[in-house]
Amino acid sequence: MKKVVLIEDSKVLATALLGALKVENVEAHWAENGAKGVALTKQVRPDLILLDLMLPKISGFDVCKMLKTDNATWRIPIVIMSTLSDEESRIRATEAGADYFIPKPYDLQSTLAEIKKILKI
After folding, report:
1. What region, left, alpha or beta, does residue 43 occupy, with left being phi > 0 and alpha being psi -120 to 50 degrees?
2. pLDDT per residue as tens digits for the range 7-40
3. Nearest Cα to Cα of residue 80 among 43, 106, 41, 57
4. What is the H or E stretch that residue 114 is in?
5. pLDDT tens digits for range 58-91
6. What pTM value is reported for the model?
7. In degrees rounded to 5, what are phi and psi of residue 27?
8. Which single residue of 7, 43, 80, 95 could bond 37 by disulfide (Cβ 3.0 to 4.6 Å)?
C-alpha cells in the first residue's frame, strides 16, 4: 500500500483529499502545519508528500527545503498544492526542491489522477 503525507492547514481540503486517497487504497496521513508535517514525514516515510505553501509555524517553502536537504527524506517526491501559483512562487518552490505543482483551487478528480500517476497506481 502506498503512503502519502498531506501537509495542509485547511481541514476542509484535507478531509476531502484524504477521503479520496483512502478510496484508492492509499494510506494517507495529515499534518495541519509545517512543523508537524516535517515530523510526520520522518515518522511515516511516505511515497509522496502533498504540501501547501501557506502554512502556520513553518512555510511550505521552508518545509520543502528541510525535507529535500534531509538524508532520510530527500528522495520523496513533493507536490506543491497552493493558491500561490504565480511564476515567482513556482520558481521559489522549484528552488526549494518541489517536484510537481498543482494550483488551487483544484479539481479533486484530476488531482487524484495526477497523484495516482506519480504513485504509479
Report:
1. alpha
2. 999 999 999 999 999 999 999 999 999 999 999 9
3. 106
4. helix 108-119
5. 999 999 999 999 999 999 999 999 998 899 999 9
6. 0.95
7. -75, 110
8. 7
Q: Is 68 exposed, middle or buried (0-12, 13-18, 19+ CB in 10 A)?
A: middle
Side chain identity at residue 3, one-letter code = K
**pLDDT tens figures, 41-53:** 999 999 999 999 9
- The helix-helix angle for 34-44 and 60-68 (nearest 10°) equals 30
For residue 4, report the phi and psi dihedrals to the nearest 5 degrees.
Answer: -130, 140
Three cell numbers, residue 57 = 509555524
Could you tell me the domains of the chain? 3-119 (3.40.50.2300)
